[in-house]
Design a protein that fits this description.
By secondary structure, this protein is mainly α. The protein contains 33 helices and five strands.
């Protein structure tokens, strides 16, 4: 008897009862999604039964193929192997002496098939290459005309999807009872681990996975996946690379739990058809949803990306940390997306993960774990953090927000600070001082900070007090300060971009467009950074290139303006339309001073790439002098 806590404890008693029926007159369908373990469950029930025969009809193209599958399975079961050519010789002899052609081959088949057991189990119905009517009619022969107890294994949803009306009509004539089974992740995991026992080189991996069986089950359950093969594949992938994980990292039990849980969650989502493609393995939050959130969540929410859905599903799981916090984007793409990761890449990327550095963590990270650390450790870390705050050593915005949450926690316990109000004021003053001293990061505007850095935590750690009003207030003030810091340095940024255009025009185009971008290339596809640029200087630069290069430089601007105006409607920055109108005016001025051929080239480039602006200065007021040069 299976344990009552078993996910499918209801299955065997019903199968036993059905097998005892005399001439039931209907088939029993065991329904479950592909990969849920129904074959494993049925084969377990069949063990030791002489009155039942299991056969897969995967790929069967007709009723003859089903009968042939039964015949071959019986031959194998009875270990029957007719001598090669024996039936042909016997048929020839009989015909010679009697004049009649006797089918000894058919006789042998019929003799074998007479021993067909009473209980027949047909698996893989949805994989048979037959029309539903033909398939169920062929099975009905055993049910109705031979009085056998027929058990069917299939994913009913897939059968129905082939032809809903035909399935519902034909099913009623053949299938009298349906049993639904569910993935038994505990039993399946035991089975997967047992199958690894034969591989001696996987001994260490098997011991690790066995010790973390409960964690594996919890990740699979949280994933809401139904296909146990996805879990088995993830376990095999962990086992395959296990020896390539440096031993000192494997000794970090907590880090290994984070790695196992996060990898399995990503692997199941990627291979399970949930829309998490290669780009999703980069684990970057969707821009559309970030803009909507930054805009006060006005209007209808944009659809969430596959990664955002995954993050929401695993939001409460203690060991799944997405957004590259444990399994970096580079590692996820190689290991999960491309199916290969060498030992060096695996080692290098894991060493960067904060979860493997917690033993040597910074003082603020020690405070993050303060409820689980010794008194002396907490007191020493608190002393260090207070000194670091006084010396303005924290510049990373994510660390500042982590500190805020930690200090609010401590203030609630009257440790280090007497009230939440004191913590809020101290962090607010800290941010103001950093901004005044130009010590805040200048690389990104507000919108680029408002995603993963403040929503999900960094360094493999979530934010304490994330839902408190103090956290929301300081988060907003820090984002505003970061935005001011970004735009304050914009003139310097513009000069760098114009220098980039002269040195590497391709990199310049990548930086301002929203297409592919090489590693290390800046990304200003959504920021109107050129609003601070001198339009005359920019026009002179862009039209100083060879004509083909000028076309390359101008080509992205129409998409850029349209993109920015969509961003504006979604709560983003204003576009560069007015600035680009002034660039176009300056370009017309250049044409009026150029040679006839060059003037014509400039005007043609303007027409092709800038006339979409439709501004009042579309045609210059130069008395028609420019046109005379054509």
């Amino acid at each position: 008897m299976k344990d009552e806590m078993d996910a499918n404890h209801h299955l065997r008693p019903q199968l036993d009862a059905f097998a005892r029926l005399a001439n039931p007159g209907f088939a029993l369908l065991v329904d479950a999604p592909w990969g849920a373990g129904k074959t494993h469950e049925l084969k377990g029930w069949l063990t030791g039964r002489e009155d039942a025969l299991y056969v897969s009809i995967y790929g069967a193209k007709g009723s003859c193929a089903i009968e042939e599958a039964l015949f071959q399975t019986l031959l194998k079961r009875k270990d029957l192997k007719p001598p090669k050519g024996a039936t042909q010789i016997m048929e020839g002899v009989a015909e010679k002496f009697t004049g009649a052609k006797i089918d000894f081959t058919g006789a042998f088949r019929r003799a074998v098939m007479k021993d067909l057991p009473r209980v027949l189990v047909f698996d893989d119905l949805e994989r048979a290459e037959m029309h539903l009517t033909e398939l169920l009619s062929a099975i009905n022969r055993f049910v109705e005309h031979e009085g056998r107890n027929v058990v069917l294994l299939a994913n009913q949803a897939e059968l129905r999807d082939k032809d809903p009306k035909t399935y519902e009509r034909t099913k009623e004539k053949v299938i009298g009872r349906i049993i639904t089974i569910y993935p038994d992740v505990d039993a399946a995991t035991e089975s997967f681990l047992a199958s690894m026992e034969r591989a001696e080189h996987q001994r260490a991996a098997r011991e690790f996975l066995t010790s973390e069986k409960a964690l594996l089950c919890s990740v699979f359950d949280t994933s809401k996946a139904l296909n146990l093969r996805l879990l088995r594949y993830a376990m095999l992938e962990i086992a395959r690379v296990f020896d390539g994980i440096p031993e000192e990292l494997r000794e970090n039990a907590e880090g290994m739990r984070y790695l196992l849980a996060t990898f399995v969650a990503l692997s199941i989502a990627f291979h399970g058809g949930e829309g998490l493609g290669i780009e999703g393995l980069g684990q970057e939050t969707g821009w559309a949803h970030a803009v909507w959130s930054a805009n006060g969540q006005k209007g209808e929410a944009p659809p969430k990306s596959a990664l955002e859905n995954l993050q929401e599903r695993f939001g409460e799981h203690p060991y799944v940390r997405l957004h590259s916090q444990v399994v970096s984007a580079k590692l996820a793409i190689a290991w999960i997306g491309k199916g290969h990761v060498d030992d060096k890449l695996l080692s290098d990327e894991l060493r960067k993960s904060p979860v493997f550095r917690l033993q040597d963590s910074e003082a603020w990270q020690t405070l993050w774990w303060w409820p689980k650390r010794k008194d002396a450790e907490v007191e020493a870390a608190l002393k260090t953090v207070k000194r670091q705050i006084g010396d303005k050593e924290f510049h990373d915005p994510a660390v500042i927000m982590h500190l805020l949450g930690i200090l609010l926690d401590l203030a609630d316990q009257k440790i280090g600070w007497s009230s939440r109000h004191d913590v809020e004021n101290e962090v607010r003053a800290y941010i103001a001082t950093l901004e005044q001293d130009n010590q805040l990061p200048k690389e990104l505007p507000r919108r680029r900070w408002s995603g993963v850095s403040f929503d999900h935590g960094q360094f493999g750690l979530g934010f304490h007090q994330k839902d408190s009003k103090e956290f929301a207030t300081i988060r907003e003030e820090l984002l505003e300060a970061l935005d001011r810091s970004f735009w304050k340095a914009n003139q310097e940024r513009v000069e760098e971009m114009l220098s980039l255009a002269e040195a590497d025009l391709g990199a310049f185009v990548e930086a301002i467009d929203d297409g592919g971008r090489r590693a290390g290339s800046p990304n200003y596809a959504h920021e109107p950074i050129f609003a601070d640029a001198d339009p005359v200087e920019v026009a002179r630069l862009l039209f100083s290139f060879e004509p083909e290069a000028t076309h390359e430089a101008l080509r992205p601007f129409e998409r850029r303006i349209q993109r920015m105006e969509r961003d504006t409607r979604a709560g983003g920055q204003s576009s560069e339309r007015d600035w680009l109108l002034r660039v176009r005016k300056a370009a017309y001025d250049l044409a009026s001073e150029a040679t006839p051929i060059r003037a014509a080239q400039i005007r043609m480039a303007i027409k092709w790439y800038l006339d979409f602006l439709d501004g009042p200065d579309k045609e210059p007021d130069d008395g028609g002098k420019a046109k005379q040069g054509v």
